[in-house]
Amino acid sequence: DRKAAWWKEAVVYQLYPRSFKDSDGDGIGDLKGIISKLDYLKSLGIDAVWLNPIFSSPNDDNGYDISDYRNIMKEFGTMKDFDALLAGLHQRKIKLILDMVLNHSSDEHEWFKQAKSSRSNAYRNYYHWWPEEKGKPTPRYSFFDVNSDAWKYDATTKSYYLHYFSQKQPDLNWENEKLRNEVYDMMKFWLDKGIDGLRMDAFQYVSKDTTWKKYPEGYEKDIIKYYGMGPNLHQYLKEMNKTVISKYNIMTVAEGAGSTLEDAHALVDEDRHELNMAYHFEIMDIGNDPAGYQLTDLKKAFTKWDQSFAEKGWLAIFLANHDVPRMVSKYGDDRPQFRTYSSKLLTTLIMTMRGTPFYFNGDELGMSNIKFNNIDDYRDIATINAYRSIKAKVGDVQAFMDKQKFISRDNTRTPFQWDASSNAGFTTGKPWIKVNPNYKTVNVVAEAQNPLSELTYFKKMVALRKSSPVLVYGDYQVFDIDSPDVYCYTRTDGQEKILIVLNFSVKAFSYPLDKNINISSAKVLMNNYNDSTNFRGNEIYLKPWQALVFKVN
Ligand code: TEU
């Protein structure tokens, strides 16, 4: 039996503050906006909210470039607003998880300003430097500067500094104990306010091999293997756990979990006292090809991870976040006749797997990719930098733009769709990024009234999970794993068994269940179609993108 924990039983709702609700008409979502929607959050039945970074930032990477870890981004509001938000969530029994961006700061952080002022500055070693007299540094790939080097030359001190992400996100030097202690103090500052959890952004990259050895040709295609799980990572996590985490009743999630199952276990194994749950990228990396993906790959990945974590460790379960496209556009089918069904099917999958659901805001409405035609509509530094480099190389710009419609991070960052009024009720001003034109029908007001909407389905699905410990802790067993169309699995806890049947295709057909599953007296718990399910013996008649959940005994 697994040890129970609140964070295993919780449904986490990822809220992207910049795009959720604007209260002051500047076109940017803010904390007061979230406060005005607390009752909406409560109505969903979720247990915790994970907020993307809300700290002071020049927003080169939408808050993932922090210039002051102890203050609120001015577009988002003030510390008073934060305290009110936390209190409002807690009044409604919703927990709050903050995003800790500790691999890098902004280049506008005071530490970096000091560090780059002179080679002898007290903050110099808060970052990684390479003096020019040593020649060119060993090349390092930069995530957001595809063809450029992660070492950027800085003339003031005639040195290069390291930035795995954008030039405005210099990597912090974790090998420096002073820096680490400063970070731990900052974490305590937020935890003492009573927040309930931490998402550790890109934490797998913090420890670097500072001999800066040369990596083999093509290493950037397997980047986590080279950048992730550096030599002292576990030492730092143990230290952080001892100094900070263990002093509070909180949950911690490792964003990025190395490149193997063993790496992930090493981060979250209970006995090691480091972090609680692994948010790995293997599922998210399936389905990045606009040509589609194989359901069998998805099933195998879910199954492999579940098996590996069946006894020990714990996983986050998700199909979308602010770094990937909308789940319905990626794993479902966002054409009008299938969008609603496939979106509900994916919700069913997330809510019936073992692991803690991390559900991305807007997916409960069935929001889909916006698919911009024009580069000027994009706001994401990853898309814009890649576009520039393709243009400079006279690459295939059209092919790039087509692909962005499918994969750009901006697809999940468009404003939340509250109602059918202008700008979907997100702002009275000009939104920082365009609103998806489908907001006239895909919005909270329209869906809240409709018993058959995605939103209504989501609430029922959350309620089912919350009332079914078997969906949290029960064993997972997959059937017919080679079927290209159907994902069929059970969750079992003692006498209790739940059967989930998901048709990942536009076809309608009769599906023969494995003979070990007996549904003669099964009760339908969820059905994403408004019909009575037809089954004869052990054959289930499935409609396109149909999702069914049965209580088997
Ligand atoms: O993303 C980290 C992240 O996803 C990378 O570590 C990943 O390995 C890489 O993008 C390859 O796909 C987080 C945030 O979620 C993202 O929004 C930020 O831009 C990034 O960190 C930098 O802080």
Which strand order do you get reading across the main beta sheet? 11-10-9-5-2-1-13-12
CATH class of the largest domain, anyone?
A: Alpha Beta
Number of domains: 3
Q: Classify the fold: give the CATH topology of the largest domain.
A: TIM Barrel
> Which residues form runs of ≥5 with pLDDT under 50?
none
- From the coordinates shown, what is the CATH architecture of the largest domain? Alpha-Beta Barrel
Query: What is the H level of CATH, i.e. the homologous superfamily of the largest domain?
Result: Glycosidases
Number of helices: 17
Ligands in the model, by name, code or SMILES, are:
1-O-alpha-D-glucopyranosyl-D-fructose
What spatial form do the alpha-carbon principal axes imply? globular
C-alpha termini separation: 20 Å
Number of strands: 21
What is the mean pLDDT?
97
Write the layout of secondary structure elements.
Blueprint (H helix, E strand, L loop, with lengths): L5 H4 L2 E4 L15 H6 L1 H7 L3 E4 L3 E2 L11 E5 L6 H13 L3 E7 L8 H6 L13 E3 L19 E4 L4 E4 L14 H15 L5 E5 L21 H5 L5 H11 L7 E5 L5 H8 L8 E3 L15 H14 L7 E2 L9 H4 L5 H17 L3 E5 L20 H12 L4 H11 L36 H6 L4 H13 L2 H5 L1 E5 L6 E8 L2 E8 L5 E4 L10 E5 L7 E2 L2 E4 L4 E5 L2
Parallel strand pairs: 1-2, 1-13, 2-5, 5-9, 9-10, 10-11, 12-13
Antiparallel strand pairs: 3-4, 6-8, 7-8, 14-15, 15-16, 16-21, 17-20, 18-21, 19-20
Bound molecules: 1-O-alpha-D-glucopyranosyl-D-fructose.
1-O-alpha-D-glucopyranosyl-D-fructose (TEU) binds next to loops.
GO molecular function, one term: alpha-amylase activity
Protein name: Alpha-glucosidase
Keywords: Glycosidase, Hydrolase
